[in-house]
Task: structure prediction
Amino acid sequence: MSTLETLPPKIATEPAIITEDLVRTFGEKVAVDHLNLRIDKGEIFGFLGPNGSGKSTTIKMLCGLLTPSSGKAIVSGIDVRRDAERIRGKIGYMPQKFSLYEDLTVRENIDFYSQLYGVKGPKAKRRKEEVIELVGIGHYRNFLAKQLSGGWKQRLALCCALVHQPEIIFLDEPTASMDPVARRGLWDLLFTLASSGVTLFVTTHYMDEAERCSSVGYIYNSRLIVSGGPDEIKQVREVIGQGNIHLEVVCKPLVKTFNLVKALPYVSDVTIFGQALHVISEHPQVEMLLAEDLRDVAVQVQNIREIQPSLEDVFVTLTKASMAEEEVRMRSAAEAKPLNALSTGFDDEEEGEADA
Ligand SMILES: Nc1ncnc2c1ncn2[C@@H]1O[C@H](COP(=O)(O)OP(=O)(O)OP(=O)(O)O)[C@@H](O)[C@H]1O
Ligand SMILES: [Mg+2]
Result:
């Protein structure tokens, strides 16, 4: 029996989602590679990673829509491999692509999902009005889904995912086509849901959204590279390189200075962030050196200060490290191959000679 099954059921600390070495392959392609996650109840978990890194595949496995190739996933206390059907009643799923009925009205779409999830009787009427109010879609209730803008379609999809009062909601890029005001509105809604004990699993490409999550995971090339609270991840020096110093340099002209700073030998990375440069260096005197070097080339420096790395800094650094590791691995595999082939060839010849 695994340690998961020995956990007492329904204790306060029981996680909402737990995965152990979860794998999904599509032919030769490993889409999710030995994923280990633990997400507590009431958390807003942000799942980040580049296109094709395995986020949607993970969500589909956790929702019981895609069978894992190996490993384990427990969602709301249920094993996804054993009882995917029962999981669907406990979760809400808002897919990456709009999946509602375009020719039905907002109200009809909500009615349909309410029936699908078995929400019946007077309770259903009350619940439908509750979600309509919560999401703020009331004045569109008689509009056809296809008449809604992208942002409102997303809100309708959320309404449909909420109607059966799920314990966990999976949202796959819910704010992809939303304007900043709508995005903020949706996040306010997610906070409201989380404060009532609902667990949220959200994928996003937006770093500001990641910063709002109580915990985040970053997946690259199908593998989880790091997970934890946003502040926790930034504090772990080993994650971003021992001794790395992050500086914010407010200066003019920005782009020209960016190119100058990029060429400095003691600077390991530089990027433009709004009206400033973010500089990473391992040199303990970087602040002084940079001030001197920029003065020498007549750059107007308004301010240089040490800052905490952003989540983007952390992910970029980790991605580069992973890419470098992968390159070394592939190079050594490529180097090993001809050698093997060579030695096999010699062996064959020797065997051939011996046989002759
Ligand atoms: N049904 C499928 N058949 C074959 N390959 C698939 C299938 N679904 C996903 N993949 C592959 O698995 C990998 C992970 O895809 P996935 O959709 O999970 O990525 P993602 O992180 O959600 O990307 P995005 O940010 O673009 O939404 C990709 O290489 C994709 O091409
Ligand atoms: Mg996706």
Observations:
- Residues 311-355 form the longest helix (45 residues).
